[in-house]
Amino acid sequence: MNTWGWAASASATPDRIYKSDGSIVEGVDVISETIDMVTYKPEKGRGEEQVESELVLRVEFTDRPEDVSAAEVDAANGALLGAVSGFQTYLGGLGERGDRKHPWAAAYSQYRLIEVFEQINSEESIQAMVGAVDELVTNYPDSRYVPIAFIKKFEAQLIHGDRAGAKATAEAFGALVDERDLAQRWKSEQKLRAVLSDDSLSGTGLEAALEKISSEAAVFPTVANRADVAVAESMLGRGAFAEAEQAFESVTESPNADERTLAAAWCGLGDCLYRRAETQAAAGDAEGAVPLFQKAQLAFMRVVVLYPTELAYVPKSAFYAGRCIQELGGELAKDQSNRLFNFVTRNFRGSRWADSARQFRRRN
């Protein structure tokens, strides 16, 4: 799924700026993306205008350097190693003068490297991603991608079990926020990561800290929704399933949640529904469990189909979608569940979900 909407080749179509409130600034020529402002020229009119970087979700560029355009085509087609090569070729050929025609493209390409390494999702690629973040921070310290890159690095470390590394990243992010007196969105983002990496917080104490951040960041829905998902995940972890289900469902209905947050919310909602279905089935109410397994399957499949690059949630969602199909039964259940189990074992070798998929595939 090409969530950024890049075209296959450069064109004369104006750039677009997508904002966190859901609005789009269209018909512009983006000149620069700094840590404070995105500067652009309107298609009609004179002079330059600006929008605060903290309000920008992404920028869709249309007139891109040739190597960057080729890398985007590879990324969109799943040729991720080709995309890495394309971005690295562009960056390696810049020289001291840089790219005067596309002054934004160097930092952009470095950030896209981070995203592609993350998508490859191997141990080596995650290490390369962490290195690419450090290079971005060092080589393009005034880029609007710097705080986003810190967040990417933190989440990758947390997902892959490096809590000490994640805590250090949150602290380095905090130092940047203080040193540069960054805008309120980045202060809220940093507070969220500091709380998520605080080993002294758990259960209702963690949830209270997260709820405070969500309330304070209400004007930044991507931050508030991410905090809300973390609250729901904590509730799920301590067995408050009804509360967690309600919290996850609330986030899935948010119009401004980002894709990672929505993947987490749908996966969490599926988890709650699946547990309810199992409980009813175990209590002898097989008929009452059917609609719950069906709803859980739909929630899990949303993650697999709509958010395929959110690899922290895809393998679990694909596995449990297969389990739902097994529980529901029917003449196609074996083939359909095996297709999902095979997807997990093929694409997520060595993970706990691949081991579980192999185990339950044998039951078919």
Q: List segments where confidence is low: pLDDT < 50 over at least 5 consecutive residues.
A: 1-11
* Tertiary shape: globular
Main β-sheet description: 5 strands, antiparallel
Name the beta content range: 5-15%
SSE pattern, N- to C-terminal: EEEEEHHHHHHHHHHHHHHH
What do the pLDDT scores average to? 93
Tally of DSSP β-strands = 5
The percent range for helix content is 55-70%
Give the topology, please.
Blueprint: E1 15-19, E2 24-33, E3 37-42, E4 49-52, E5 56-60, H1 66-76, H2 80-92, H3 105-120, H4 123-139, H5 145-159, H6 163-180, H7 184-196, H8 203-216, H9 221-237, H10 241-252, H11 259-282, H12 286-306, H13 314-328, H14 333-347, H15 352-361
Antiparallel strand pairs: 1-2, 1-5, 2-3, 3-4
Helix pairs in contact: 1-2, 2-3, 3-4, 3-5, 4-5, 5-6, 6-7, 7-8, 8-9, 9-10, 9-11, 10-11, 11-12, 11-13, 12-13, 13-14, 13-15, 14-15
Structure, described:
The structure is a single chain. The chain has 364 residues and is an alpha+beta fold. It is 63% helix and 8% strand. It is built from 15 helices and five strands. The protein has helices at 66-76, 80-92, 105-120, 123-139, 145-159, 163-180, 184-196, 203-216, 221-237, 241-252, 259-282, 286-306, 314-328, 333-347, 352-361, and strands spanning 15-19, 24-33, 37-42, 49-52, 56-60. Strands 4-3-2-1-5 form a five-stranded antiparallel beta sheet, with no helix packed on it. α10 (241-252) packs antiparallel against α11 (259-282). Residues 1-11 have low confidence and may be disordered.
